[in-house]
Amino acid sequence: MSKNEAIRQRDLAVLWHPTTQMKDHEWLSLLPVSSAQGVWLEDMEGKRYIDAISSWWVNLFGHTNRHISQAVSEQASRLEHVLLAGVTHEPVVRLAEKLVNITPAGLERVFFADSGASAVEISLKMSFHYWRNIGEEGRTRFVTLSNSYHGDTLGALSVGDAGLFKQAYEPLLMEPLVAPSPDCFALPREQWDAHASNKLSDLRKIFAQNEGEICAVIIEPLVQCAGGMRMYPPSYLTGLRALCDEYRVHLIADEIAVGFGRTGTMFACEQGGVSPDFMCISKGLTGGYLPMSAVMTSDKVYAAFYDEYTTLRGFLHSHSYTGNALACAAALATLELFEQRDVLADNRLLAQQMLEAISPLRDHEHIGDIRQTGMILAVEMVAQREPMIEYDWKQRRGMKVYEYAMAQGVLLRPIGNVVYFMPPYVVNSEEINLMAKAAMGGIDLATQG
Ligand SMILES: Cc1ncc(COP(=O)(O)O)c(C=O)c1O
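# pyridoxal-5'-phosphate complex -> structure
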């Protein structure tokens, strides 16, 4: 038996994989990765694959990046972890200071956690508890956008609108108010702002009808990633901030997938010129090395919790690994890499190359939309372009692209009918061409019949 096959069999005997119908692995091969460097993953037998999706959007500067690896290993020989209640350490303080410096003005406090979903949970609890602490106990509702995704724990799932992920758990979940997404699917760019403005009017109605009852609105700024890389313009963020101020509703920006340069600016909110009341960050925070997340908020919010213990106004929430020193070292090293060169400028060139590489798809009869925001490029397969008919999700055409690309040495992971690139920022033009070739070949195959 081959080395790859041996580890697959051992795996399938004991593991349960994330977001997976395990029966699929009766016909779908697991990829056993034994090492990785830059954008490349290597299996147990030496075959290499480009990680075109940055390992679920976490990796920024390549796998086993020398600078980050060294920082983590040095930290590991000094202090690996210590609880963060009643204790502090230099890496966590330095990281918090840096995050306050690089995030939009007004985000002055950092609460650390360990995953994207836990950051979302914290932001919901903090918002709710803030209103309670200032005597507005009638505020118990959250607003979300249709097609949004904020994680899989019960609170995060509640404020998402990812039907397939959510259906089975509905009886356990909070019920959010759902505003229509400003998603500009298949619209020409020049119509994006008008579309977004219409969707703000819908949101205004929800705010008006539920005045005094809403804690916060939670959004994924500019790109609804898990919802199929659906995109909308910065003007929506600007209008949304104004609306939140008018109705005194918190704005929670979930920058977990789009933060750290993904959309062309360090944080997507910057493009709308807005600062949220809460900003959730994770994924790229540690360059893809270690699980860590944070919720950033204002001194105003912080002050509403600051009181004598017995008032029970404090935020009594914890995760064992909060402020983990190894994760802090990885995050600090990642931020240093942003300081060492103009990553955002270099990414603009890479983004342009990605778009050029897939340009033959513009005329493809089964491509209904090509969209890009910074280092996220998505193409959507459709049954018919004019009038547009979408493929039934049950046909699982994206899986055909996945299988084809894997055979070509490219790890893509289409979301339904959406094939996308979200590579580490160290990808080069040759690798971009390989990614594009694999995606285009896969799309040709998947859209036959
Ligand atoms: C926008 C957004 N929020 C939250 C999450 C959840 O993060 P995690 O998987 O680390 O819990 C994700 C994960 O993909 C995400 O894309």
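# post-check
Residues 115-117, 120, 149-151, 220, 225-226, 254, 256-257, 282 surround pyridoxal-5'-phosphate (CB under 6 Å).
The chain has two domains: 31-64+342-446, 70-339.
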